[in-house]
Amino acid sequence: MNKLTPEQVISSHLGDILPLGNLVYFSALIAGIRDSRKFTGRNIETGEIEIYDNNVNGCWLGAIGYLILLDQVGKCFKPSMTSINFPENTNNILRALKYFSSLSDNEIYCLYALRCALAHDYALYNINRRVPALTHHFKLRSNSVTPLIELPSYQWNGDIITRNSQNCTTVNLLKLGDLVEEIFKSLKIMSSQKQLEIILQGGSEELSSRYGFVTFAQ
């Protein structure tokens, strides 16, 4: 794959599973989005919801999958025409959501905090004494009615005894899946218009070798 142009490597990374004789090539991004769809009741090819069930659409493992994909997107890509610059140590989820969504800074910090809570502890608290905006206790929903994020009336201070409904952050996991699916669609459009850039230090070779896989066809 590293003999292709950067644009072709990006297209392959975002594209469907590619037959190569009795082998198939696929990217970690495609594997991740298909797994996330499977866990949350979506069509694994299109991302459309097929099973409307709160327990399925709100699956924590599926949500973690979608959040991890944001990590990969922010680590690998940026829009070619962006004027946004980040300090070198900026978290990849923050980069991805700033580059490819219209969420506010507080909403972006909220989703990063949720990723930390679920991925590190499989729990609903994230306490960060250095960055108060990352301190949240969460209530999770999964429906087509309520918004993606309902921020608290005031920021929780991280002390367990001070938790209440006014400093609780609510996230709709169905809408989280929708958000990442829309970002994925926008990446494919930007790629087709040559408006997407690889930001990995190793460029297209690192993208294809680190995040690309070949296996036997089923």
Q: What labels describe this entry?
A:
9 strands, alpha+beta, 4-stranded mixed β-sheet, 44% helix, 3-stranded antiparallel β-sheet, 218 residues
Question: Topology of this structure?
Answer:
Blueprint: H1 6-14, E1 18-20, E2 23-27, H2 28-39, H3 54-57, H4 60-76, E3 77-79, H5 92-100, H6 105-121, E4 125-126, E5 136-141, E6 149-150, E7 169-172, H7 173-192, E8 196-198, H8 203-211, E9 212-216
Parallel strand pairs: 5-7
Antiparallel strand pairs: 1-2, 2-9, 3-8, 4-5, 6-7
Helix pairs in contact: 1-7, 1-8, 2-4, 4-5, 4-6, 4-7, 5-6
Describe the structure.
This protein has about 220 residues and is an alpha+beta fold. It has one domain. Helices cover about 45% and strands about 15% of the residues. It has eight helices and nine strands. The protein has helices spanning about 5-15, 30-40, 55, 60-75, 90-100, 105-120, 175-190, 205-210, and strands at about 20, 25, 75-80, 125, 135-140, 150, 170, 195-200, 210-215. The strands form three sheets. Strands 4-5-7-6 form a four-stranded mixed β-sheet. The chain has a three-stranded antiparallel β-sheet with strand order 1-2-9. Strands 3-8 form a two-stranded antiparallel sheet. A hairpin with a 2-residue loop joins strand 1 and strand 2 (about 25). The two termini are about 20 Å apart. The model has no long low-confidence stretch (mean pLDDT about 95).
